[in-house]
What does this fold into?
Amino acid sequence: MSQATIESILHEKRLFHPSEDFSNRAHIKNLDEYRQLYDRAKTDPEGFWEELAETELHWFKKWERVLDWQPPFAQWFAGGKINISYNCLDRHLNGDRKDKPALIWEGEPGDSRIFTYAELHREVCQMANAIKELGVKKGDRVGIYMPMIPSAAIAMLACARIGAPHTVVFGGFSAEALKDRLEDAEAKLVITADGGWRKDAIVPLKDQVDKALEAGAPGVENVLVVKRTQQEISMQPGRDHWWHDLQTRVSADCPAEEMDSEDMLFILYTSGTTGKPKGVVHTTGGYNLYTHVTSKWIFDLRDDDVYWCTADVGWITGHSYIVYGPLSNGATTLMYEGAPRASNPGCLWDVVQKYGVTIFYTAPTAIRALMKLGEQHPDARDLSSLRLLGTVGEPINPEAWMWYHRVIGGGKCPIVDTWWQTETGGVMITPLPGATPTKPGSCTLPFPGIVADVVDAEGEPVTDESGGYLVVRQPWPGMMRTVYGDPDRFRRTYWEYLRPQDGNPIYFAGDGARKDEEGYFWVMGRVDDVINVAGHRLGTMEVESALVSHPAVAEAAVVGCPHEVKGEEIVAFVTLKEDLDASEELENELKQHVVNEIGALARPKEIRFTEELPKTRSGKIMRRLLRSLASGEEISGDTSTLQDRGVLEKLRGG
It folds into this structure.
């Protein structure tokens, strides 16, 4: 597809419709069916969710009340007894799914393993008994600091099985960041590994745990260690225990605890611009239902699918859409330890080809990185098994959407561009692939049961095509319940930023968005990523999209820099595609390209070329660090999520 054709499609806002065959086989088959579900959920939310809870999940005891809403605190299905580990495993053991692959795992060096539902159930029960043997009781918190190996998912399910809330800390975090999270969660046990593989190198996880525990986290009494990379590590007698030693002597019989629907399931930490990370609390029943239903309808899960979400289990995407959502549906979910690297830039496509992956869910950042590596890598593999693609983590620029659709999907796969957050528990705005015509760059329409809107600073709805604050007006089962240990912070951060005149609290997501004339949502990025140039508000995503639409640009990040007259000016950080060199001529060409795409108002004051951009370990660009660099300020705030501190040093050095 030529650049001119792509530009024509984007200019016309052309709709991409699912094929008739896809729609006929889908769970939700057309827009009329979607609208009926949406209208019913909006007018009778409790009836809508109650029916799904009754038909989709196993409960030991039915709830006393569907929803107790004391804004901003919600209780869903309170009094109901449930266990998410049971819903993910035990209920699939009676029938054909017992011997069906539940978890496919591919290690970076090429080792692999496939667990059936029966085998995964046995492993989870054994680890649950080992955790209990190490003194963990119902209600005790457990820290999980693991590579992308099966034991990470097994540990999560084992904790859920015995009612011990887990806090998974991404394996790329520093010892200091790990310590802070273990201390805040008051963890009693840490589950880790000797190390993990990442881009042909060993990440020494146990060493980081040792440093974290030397520096603090006095509540940790034991460390359970899985052997993965085989290098020599320190094992403290009495505190550190090898999993393979315990596994030989614990029973594979561990009945699931009957948990109250509102019992805590996990704490997951998100970073703020200042202060300590926020411990987002999710509870059991509502989260189980919401991740189950969103997985089923958004990914149109079928019994023969091989579903692959490329996230790490250390992030909410891994929790909801690698482990809990897919397994609750009895699906086959895939985990991959590795990442594209110099020794194998096409490794993702090797995995798709090897296992016949049918559903592929990844981040726009990853898509742009794959674009930069070139089409020769996917072109050299058989990707014909793919039937559905998805994106998550940030707004996707339309050019990357088109590349994904054309090169990876072969022009035949619907793309579900999903918007959601750690705090929401599951996807909030998304296409339903058999029903929703899609537009490149738009996450389209709210999921049934989600009443989303775009409002002004007074909480009043804005007109079509006007930018504003993205909010949610009604509670939903997957919503976070509080910030761990700090309910006032929960109230202030999410429910008091905007105060509508009618007095009804609304959840503010922190993102800006607009709706078009067809009601489609276009997320513009964080509201602190809006630049005010001479009184005109420009979303960074809009300018970044313009830059990335230039054939020389692989990735771009745009920030505002203070200006005494205009208020702010635009500074762009740009990485180029392979084999292209930065030059003054190219800088001028890119500035003019932005003018052509948006207008003279959006012309960047400066373009800084860089080999890499500072990103979190989940792939999000850390624009606040770039703002500090552009303004010549000292970098402050939480940088624990930064993937590579060397990138900052290179940018500082010009």
The first helix runs from residue 3 to 12. The radius of gyration is 24 Å. The mean pLDDT is 91. The first strand starts at residue 65 and ends at 70.
